[in-house]
């Protein structure tokens, strides 16, 4: 098992949100790269980065903070939040990001997932499935996707995805750990590698 620390960025700061509510934040650092270096010093080998503002806006908002992290750490970085087209994927990978996490785009534009995997390979393109009561959510968790998370996972597998980052929204930011039964169910039903978030 690999423990993957996370740096969630809002307004250029490292924060934690309770269940994805933008108004319910705790600021951990004014400089996200300092938190990233702390995780690296603590033994982290992979770093999960989320542009929270980007997730809601639909485009990259905190690129400067992401770039500062990527330039300073020796860890494999994966970034999600507001990545909705190939140009954005190209930009982030060009900045030195190691892996891309597609969430809303996977639901709304599955062709992008297929094309990105064809261009960069499944080791560089992950899909984030965020769910509440087993139903996928999009657009920074503000919209119900209207379909079971497992069904979305199976569709992504058919497109060539090999790893899912699975989040139970009700548990996120609550410091209670991931929803193990739902994560196990996703792994069992899809046969994919799962990162429990």
UniProtKB/TrEMBL annotation:
It holds the Pfam family His_biosynth. Pathway: Amino-acid biosynthesis; L-histidine biosynthesis; L-histidine from 5-phospho-alpha-D-ribose 1-diphosphate: step 4/9. The keyword NADP does not apply. One of its GO terms (biological process) is L-histidine biosynthetic process. It is found in: Cytoplasm. It catalyses: 1-(5-phospho-beta-D-ribosyl)-5-[(5-phospho-beta-D-ribosylamino)methylideneamino]imidazole-4-carboxamide = 5-[(5-phospho-1-deoxy-D-ribulos-1-ylimino)methylamino]-1-(5-phospho-beta-D-ribosyl)imidazole-4-carboxamide. InterPro entries: Aldolase_TIM, His_biosynth, HisA/PriA, Isoase_HisA-like, RibuloseP-bd_barrel. Keywords: Amino-acid biosynthesis, Cytoplasm, Histidine biosynthesis, Isomerase. Its main location: cytoplasm. Transmembrane segments: none annotated. Its EC number is 5.3.1.16. Gene3D superfamilies: Aldolase class I (3.20.20.70). One of its GO terms (molecular function) is 1-(5-phosphoribosyl)-5-[(5-phosphoribosylamino)methylideneamino]imidazole-4-carboxamide isomerase activity. GO terms for cellular component: cytoplasm. Belongs to the HisA/HisF family. PANTHER family: 1-(5-PHOSPHORIBOSYL)-5-[(5-PHOSPHORIBOSYLAMINO)METHYLIDENEAMINO] IMIDAZOLE-4-CARBOXAMIDE ISOMERASE. This is 1-(5-phosphoribosyl)-5-[(5-phosphoribosylamino)methylideneamino]imidazole-4-carboxamideisomerase. It comes from marine sediment metagenome.
């Amino acid at each position: 098992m690999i423990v993957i620390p996370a740096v969630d960025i809002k307004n250029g700061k490292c924060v934690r949100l309770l269940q994805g509510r933008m108004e319910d934040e705790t600021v951990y650092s004014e400089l996200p790269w300092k938190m990233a270096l702390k995780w690296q010093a603590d033994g982290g080998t992979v770093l999960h980065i989320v542009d929270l503002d980007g997730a809601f806006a639909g485009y990259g908002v905190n690129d400067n903070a992401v770039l500062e992290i990527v330039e300073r750490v020796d860890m494999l970085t994966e970034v999600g939040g507001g990545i909705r087209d190939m140009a954005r994927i190209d930009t982030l990978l060009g900045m030195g990001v190691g892996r891309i996490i597609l969430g809303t785009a996977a639901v709304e534009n599955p062709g992008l997932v297929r094309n990105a995997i064809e261009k960069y390979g499944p080791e560089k393109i992950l899909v984030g499935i965020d769910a509440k009561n087993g139903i996928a959510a999009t657009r920074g968790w503000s919209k119900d996707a209207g379909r079971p998370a497992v069904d979305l996972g199976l569709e992504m597998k058919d497109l060539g995805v090999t790893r899912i980052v699975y989040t139970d929204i009700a548990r996120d930011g609550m410091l209670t750990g991931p929803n193990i039964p739902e994560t196990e169910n996703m792994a069992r039903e899809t046969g994919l590698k799962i990162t429990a978030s």
